[in-house]
Amino acid sequence: MQIPAIDPAKTALNYHHEGEVEAHGVEHPDHRMLGVIVFLCAEGMIFFGMFAAYLIYRAMAPAWPPEGTPDRELLLPGINTVILIASSFVIHNADTAIKKNDAAGMRNWLLVTIAMGAVFLFGQVYEYAHLEFGLTTNLYASCFYVLTAFHGLHVTLGVLLMVAVVWRSRAEGHYSSEHHFGIEATEIYWHFVDVIWIVLFLLLYIL
Amino acid sequence: MTQAQFQESANTEARGTAPADRHWRDYFTFNTDHKVIGIQYLVTTFIFYLIGGVMATLVRTELATPDSDFVPPELYNSLFTVHATVMIFLWIVPAGAGFANFLIPLMIGAKDMAFPRLNAIAFWLIPVGGVLLLSSFLVGAPQAGWTSYPPLSLVTAQAGEEIWILSVLILGTSSILGAVNFAVTIFTMRVPSMGLNDMPLFCWAMIATSALTLIATPVLAAALILLSFDLLAGTAFFNPTGNGDPIVYQHLFWFYSHPAVYIMIMPFFGVISEVLPVHSRKPIFGYLAIAYSSLAISFLGLIVWAHHMFTSGTPGWLRMFFMITTMIIAVPTGIKIFSWLATIWGGKLRLVSAMLFGMGFISTFVLGGITGIMVASVPFDIHVHDTYFVVAHLHYVLFGGSVFGIYAAFYHWFPKMTGRMINEFWGRVHFVLTYVGFTVTFLPMHALGMQGMPRRVAMYDPKFTTINVICTVGAYMLAVSTIPFIINVIWSWRYGPKAGDNPWQALSLEWMTTSPPPIENFEGVPVLATGPYDYGMEKIQNTGERLRLKLRENATRNAQKTGIPIAEAQASTFLGRTATLVAPESEVNVDSPADESQDGE
To answer: CA–CA separation, B126 vs B175, rounded Å?
Structure first.
């Protein structure tokens, strides 16, 4: 059987054990992406569990949010939401750029996305610092902090993923129109974080 | 002991002919070979089984007398809590993953799992989570039972409870990562000539299991994260003193933990579907029915969780829904059971240890399933809720089902994993001890439960003493039953007669490579010449032109998809192997190893 030559770009992301072989030389173009999507479905179920708990509390409570919860400021989280949604479009440009072999363009678009993610996180911390209720004030407050913080953790992870991609892209030709799975995976993850935020924003702020 | 086991296996392998054989040191490294990881899983989980077994024995010793006189009450609570956690999260679930790791790439003709490094991570989380869980004994182990219902879990042994949460989160992460890997591997890495309906049934079972793991386990994580906040940060998600709702925890918990019983049993449904046809030397009865009933069980398993909560104030209409859906699960399960019986029916049975455990599995699992239907009905459940009837039921399903399945798989694939035959005499001794010990331990518990003895208590009414003593004797028997198994495995791994590639004359792909398999499993791309269960079927018996045509067709498909021309020589090697494989009437001399070992001991 013919063993394909080892491609350095592929080795860095190698997924076959010891980086030596393609499975049978059979192309499995989709299996890494399938893995990411399946994993994100599982991630989604964690959020689903928390949303379910939140909705049960909400359905059982006589008043929601419970009496005495201070009003929530909508301006800052609104801006944050717009930034996060916009960043989903920005990161897509990075993917488009690398598909045209434009590594510099990809890096720039990713840096913009990183900045937007960072602004979102700072906005969230700023909001926490200025809210008039704490983690244990009541059930709504607990849900609010735990859900937004858990989402913030995912945003942080997404930013770190992008930083990793940018850091690795310093090597000439590390990513190319042929090899850009890391970027695609990061993009899918970022869209996932975005979608979760939209649901979260609707549940916690609007409804 | 296990260290010796490792070393011996490695020595055996090192003496092999293939240059790429494993060295024993590989079994202690962060290896990415699925076979190494599979064996690492199995040995590690077996160690945890012994630890959990010691705890069970201590619990039963305490229960030999009505008074709380053997261990302090707090320790007793910790023992049954950690016993259950270890057995579920560190033995049955990861043991299934261990077999899946070893077998799936071999069964579908792949060189490795889709994500080998992820695979290694998933394994190494197991010892981390396990040691963390056991370390809770240093600070006061959790006492709230493996369900950790709040508010009880919020007030007893808080440090131990938090450690419990962390370790279950780690183990849950491990099983999610494993499930991602299994699902992607099965869907994308099959040899080109293998369609979904040509797969061995174990792979089907693992698809169903992975789906359940991926859907249900994260919800447990959500529940545990919220519980953690209640414990550490003073929130009140589940704390009634702060307007929280403990019932919400029960819903989230059982949304995972009911499907979890299918995560625990489904891989062994797959194992039994492999073991029975091979040792009955007959095609499996109802391949598609068995495959799709796994999927049906997965789906139904996800919508029945509240049957654990009939006494938690669930409204009547909801109880009715969950009672009916629970009972419907008996239908796909029954389809499997009857298909297995029809497989054995009229077969030329080969009563080796694997087959004995397989048939033991059916008998005990049917009993466990019947009591499952009983507790699914609301009025009966209210009567026996939290009594020993439930303990008996769950042990019939999880011990009589999963553990018997694990043993069946151990004996069935031992030749493939080690290249040696296991001693059948001591295997049969092990089976008899396990089966009798199991029955003596758990059958009387049904009576205890019907008479009203509550579970999870150290002190009980003296009128229950006699039955409890019987159960305790059975538990000691079970403890003793592992000794012949351990000695047998180590001895056979070292001195057992060489197994050859295919000692059982099975037809699935994992038997078409050497034992133990070389590092990348197959030379070239294996070609399917038969289905996995085509024993004695007409198209196979006619080993002439028809088989040659089928083989050529598959080889052409392989060549088209891979671009690798199938050499004539390779095709004929497979044809030769297949031709020897498909003689279903020929005997395998399984008794000779036993005779030799008797001389040896």
So the answer is: 9
Residue range A21-41, pLDDT digits in tens: 344 444 455 688 899 999 999
pLDDT of residue B537: 60
What are the start-end ranges of the E strands in B149-205?
none
**What ipTM is given for this predicted complex?**
0.87
Residue A21: which of B183, B237, B520 has the nearest Cβ? Answer: B520
A23 CB within 8 Å of a chain B CB? yes
Q: Nearest Cβ partner of B218 from A26, A46, A142?
A: A46
What pTM did the predictor assign?
A: 0.87
Are A17 and B116 in contact (CB < 8 Å)?
yes
Are B205 and B270 contacting, i.e. CB atoms less than 8 angstroms apart?
yes
Query: What's the pLDDT score for residue B13?
Result: 38
The verdict on A149 touching B (C-beta cutoff 8 Å) is no
Task: Tell me which residue has tokens 């009547």.
Answer: B316
Distance, CA of B540 to CA of B534 (rounded, Å): 7
Q: Do B527 and B571 contact (CB within 8 A), yes or no?
A: yes
Q: SS3 letters for chain A?
A: CCCCCCCHHHHHCCCCHHHCCCCCCCCCCCHHHHHHHHHHHHHHHHHHHHHHHHHHHHHHCCCCCCCCCCCCCCHHHHHHHHHHHHHHHHHHHHHHHHHCCCHHHHHHHHHHHHHHHHHHHHHHHHHHHHCCCCCCCCHHHHHHHHHHHHHHHHHHHHHHHHHHHHHHCCCCCCCCCCCCHHHHHHHHHHHHHHHHHHHHHHHHHHC
Enumerate the β-bridge partners of residue B387: B454
Is pLDDT at A134 greater than 70 in this prediction?
yes
Name every chain B residue with its beta carbon within 8 A of the beta carbon of A21. Answer: 111, 520
The rounded distance, in Å, linking the Cα atoms of B123 and B117 is 10
> Cβ distance A144 to A71 under 8 Å?
no
CB proximity A100 to B under 8 Å: no
Do residues B221 and B172 make contact, with C-beta atoms less than 8 angstroms apart? yes
Q: Is A150 close to B219, i.e. CB distance below 8 A?
A: no
Instruction: Note the pLDDT tens digit of each residue in B174-212.
Output: 999 999 999 999 998 888 878 888 899 999 999 999 999
Cβ <8 Å between A31 and B181: no
By the CB < 8 Å criterion, does A30 face chain B? yes
